[in-house]
Amino acid sequence: MVRLNEIRRGERAVDPPEGFDASLHFIGCIRTPWTSRLETPRQGRLDGPTCRLELEAPWDEGLLGIEEFERLEVLYWLHESRRDLVHQSPGNDGEARGVFSLRTPVRPNPIGTSIVQLVKIEGPVLFVRGLDCLDGTPLLDVKPDRTLFEPLAPAQAGDFQVGDP
Fold this sequence. Notes:
The chain is an all-beta fold and 165 residues long. Helix content is 0%, strand content 30%.
């Protein structure tokens, strides 16, 4: 079950550094049926409820041409997530794993991503299926699903290859 702020056996929290390295601009708000982290699904489903991505001006102008894509990648800020756990025990069994080996929302920079199905567009609002976040979640970005694209150029001499040192 999703937990709010307790630390389970085997987990480890750290003191995050003070200050900021970057700033983000929220481009809108996500509207979903979930108002509690305890009821929010762990992963979005393409047959799940229709949710809304509400873009604010002037960012809504960036939707020009988005109707050409059936799947989108949505990035959002998990504003209610703690940011200090580096070891987590997702099974609540004391077996901890590093945060970067998990898809947990509890991370140093709690950025969520979902691949969603575009249902329809009404002005600055995208209706989508496949989200797994709270109602009111700040929207960071919307992109066409990267799996829809072919590489722009063939491999060239000097390109990094898997297995290179």
